[in-house]
Structure formats: structure tokens, C-alpha cells
Amino acid sequence: MNNSKGATGALHPASAAILVTGGAGFIGSNFIRYVFNKTDFAGTIVNYDKLTYAGNLSNLADIEKKFHNTGYVFERGDIRDYAKVEELIRKYGITIIVHFAAESHVDRSIFGPKEFVETNINGTFSLLEAARQLWAERSDVRFHHISTDEVYGSLGDSGYFFENTPYDPRSPYSASKAASDHLVRAYYHTYGLPVTLSNCSNNYGPYHFPEKLIPLIILNAVEGKPLPVYGDGRNVRDWLYVEDHADAIWQILLKGRAGETYNIGGECERENIEVVNAICDILEELRPPKDNTLIRKQSPAVGRYRELITFVGDRPGHDRRYAVNCDKIKKELGWSHRHNFEEGLRHTIEWYLRNTAWIEQIKSGEYTKWIEKNYTNYKKLKNEGQG
Ligand code: NAD
Ligand code: DAU
User: What's the confidence (pLDDT) of residue 13?
Assistant: First the structure.
């Protein structure tokens, strides 16, 4: 590293002013909730979010109510807006940036990669420039970049992703995340900007936008709609409960070393079809189809949720298997996941069954158009013999 500036100053995350980008999204909002409710945090969090289709202020309604102007502030804006970010850094005395904001859905990146390049690459660049300016003025700075295991590519039946696994992204989404990771590391090596990175596996839990597998399957099942499974359903993902991810990020802020990357994973590999079956089985118990009026209306012949499973065409370039080795964060920072999949999944399903107002609000937006477009395409791919 060529750190012309010298040593970094001590960080005090528990009392700092932290800029969280993308805090109105799924993981960002769970992170903010975790910090306020489960740590001894006494600083300020500025949630900076553009509120795209995936950003939703009601994800943080409880935090807004409890901590508004006593630690929590929302500011709307785009991470590409350098002047606005600089202004916020000065206004709130920001020293730590935790960067979640991104376009995050692989299927959307297949339809429209441009937005992914603009937000994930150009947006990260703009934020890094603002952080570099801050770093020129003080030494107690940290830029934490949230990335994904997808940058490492696709695994066969065996093996794991390690922190030094060569990058091999295969979708426009993962390629844009890989590019942003490279920029973050370049700012560490070139300018000495104190950065940390984390590459995490698939998250699930409350407030997950229902374009992603787990919440989509829950919602469709409850409404008696087809449960779309891509290809042969045997692609493997490594599932982590979102609160465990939030905890890992907090541990990295507290104890992580500048310049380091930490892999985070659930050590919980499941084929997609196993996940879908598990959701169906839990729903059998929590909302039996015979008592579900929506099922009776939409698919009266259906006796069991599993009957709704529908194999559709395969995702173009569909990565086969992800599996993350997270020994480094366990050994160095003492983190490990606390929730097992069965318990986390049940809790998640219960949350979706309870939070109908949240779901209705999302469905009234651009969501329905997206679902129509995406699954018409997968039906077409199936008819063309792919999958
Ligand atoms: P999400 O799509 O739910 O939320 C993204 C948030 O970023 C939204 O609130 C959106 O409004 C905001 N945003 C988008 N573009 C913006 C812009 N230009 N300026 C400001 N805000 C903008 O995403 P998520 O699932 O919460 O993922 C958060 C981060 O974690 C992403 O960087 C993603 O790559 C990474 N990640 C996600 C997972 C996962 O399983 N969801 C796993 C590993 C890593
Ligand atoms: O691995 C981390 C990544 O996990 C994050 O970086 C991404 O932001 C996040 O979206 C997620 O990406 P995936 O593509 O793995 O998640 P998704 O929920 O879209 O899909 C999970 C698996 O389920 C994948 O193999 C595709 C499949 N799938 C998905 C949908 C939406 C289906 O079979 N049917 C579906 O309808």
C-alpha cells in the first residue's frame, strides 16, 4: 500500500456519525435497526437513499418514530451526487461510510444493465471521491463497502469461495459489483483510504423485496399463484439470516483491519427446490390451504402448496452454486451466524403473514409490472426449450 498520509486514527463506531447509503433497502434497513436496537450505539446514522423501487421508508418506520432527530436522520439523494454527499459529510460530521446502495437484482440486470453500471460503478466511484476528500482532512475515517459472493463466479459440486478466490463475475449485476470492489481496493492501495470490504452470501429475512426468491415464493403461495422455479431447481445458494449479516458488518466496523476483505456466509447450502419445498411445508402449518380464502378463490383445486410449484425456463448465465468460507471473520473478529435456516425461515414467513399492509404498499407500486415482464420472459424461455 502506498499510504502517503500515514497512520489511521482510532475509530469509534459506537459514537460516530455514520453515513449509511441504501439504508431504505432490505439489508440497509435491517442494519440500521440492528445498530439502534442491539448495540450500544450512541452516535448518529444518516440514511442516504434515492428511494428507487427497492427503497421504502416504511422499512424503518419504527426507527424513525423512536430515534428521529435523536440519532437517526433520513436524507434523500443519489450516491452519484458528489456535491450532496460532500455537503452531508460536513453537515453531520460524518467519519464512517457504510455503503449498501446498489441495484441488487440479477434478473433486472439482465433486462437493463445500464442502471447497474451507473449506480454500482459510477455511484461507488463518486462516494469514494467524497471519502478521499474527507480522508485528506482527518485520520479517523472508514469506508466500508458491502459486496457479494457473486463476484467470485459459479462453483461446481465442491469447493468454497475464499477471500482470495479470483474474481469471475458472470451477470451484469455481479460484474458491476466486482468493478466497484476493484475501485474500493484501488483507493486503499493508491490513496491509503481506510477501507474494509465484505462479500456476503444470499440474505433472507423481514423487509426483503418480493422480487427475490424467498419472499416471492411466500407471497405467491399465500395467494395461490404459481411458484416459479428456474431451470431444474438444483442451483445452490448459501443462505444467511439478514440480522446475522448486520452483526457481521458491525463487528467489521468495530474490529476490522483497514484494507481487509471479510467473507460472510450462512454455511447453509440449499438447492432452490429445497428452499421452495421448505416454504410450502411451513405454510401448510401456519396457513393450511383449506383455510386460505385466497387459495380457494385463485386455485380451488390445490390441496397442498407444493402443487403450485412450476418449473420455468432458466435464468441466462445462471450461476450453479455459491458457498462461502467465512473462517477469516470467525477467527479474526469472533463473528459467527446465530440463526439457523429452519428457525430463520419460519420467523420470516410469520413476518410476511403478519405484515400485510407493507406487502400491499409494495404491490401497488411498479412491482406488478415487473413481475408480469420477468415471468412472461421465463415462460417464453421454457417454451423455447431452455430449462
Ligand atoms: P435493495 O435492492 O433491497 O436495496 C438497495 C437500496 O439502495 C434501496 O433502498 C435503493 O433505493 C437504494 N439505491 C439504489 N440506487 C441508489 C442510488 N443511486 N443512490 C442512493 N440510493 C440508491 O438491496 P439489498 O438486497 O438490501 O442489498 C444491499 C447491498 O448488499 C447491495 O450492495 C448488494 O449488492 C449487497 N448484497 C446483497 C445481498 C442479498 O442477498 N440481498 C447479498 C450480498 C450482498
Ligand atoms: O449471493 C448474493 C446475492 O444474492 C446478492 O448479491 C444479490 O443482490 C441477491 O439478489 C441474491 O442474488 P440471487 O440471484 O442468488 O437471488 P434471487 O433471490 O434472485 O435468486 C435465488 C435463486 O433462486 C437463484 O438461483 C435464482 C432462483 N430463482 C429466483 C427467482 C426470483 C428462481 O428459481 N425463481 C425465481 O422466481
Answer: 97
Q: Are strands 236-241 and 269-271 parallel, antiparallel or unpaired?
A: antiparallel
Measured distance CA(341)–CA(282) in Å, rounded: 12
In angstroms, what is the span from residue 290 Cα to ligand 1's centroid? Answer: 37
What is the CATH number for 134?
3.40.50.720
In a domain, 144, yes or no: yes
Give the chain's mean pLDDT: 96
Q: Residue 386's pLDDT band (boundaries 50, 70, 90)?
A: low
How many domains does the chain fold into?
A: 1
- pTM surpassing 0.85? yes
Using a 6 Å cutoff on CB, does residue 378 contact ligand 2?
no
Tell me the pLDDT tens digit for each residue of 95-111.
999 999 999 999 999 99
- Three-state DSSP state, 251: helix
| Long-range Cβ contacts of 161-164 (<8 Å, 24+ apart) | 161/199, 161/263, 161/322, 161/323, 161/324, 161/325, 162/263, 162/325, 163/199, 163/261, 163/262, 163/263, 163/328
Ligand nearest to the CA of 58: 1
Q: Tell me the mean pLDDT in the region 54-63.
A: 97
> Is the pLDDT confidence value at 183 over 90?
yes
The CA-to-CA distance between both ends of the chain, in Å, stands at 47
Q: What range does the domain containing 92 cover?
A: 13-209+240-269
Nearest CA to ligand 1 atom 33: 104
Nearest ligand to the CA of 198 is 1
> Is the residue at 66 inside a domain?
yes
* CA 103 to centroid of ligand 1, rounded, Å: 6
The answer to whether position 281 is within a domain reads: no
DSSP-derived secondary structure letter, 161: B
pLDDT at position 2 over 70: no
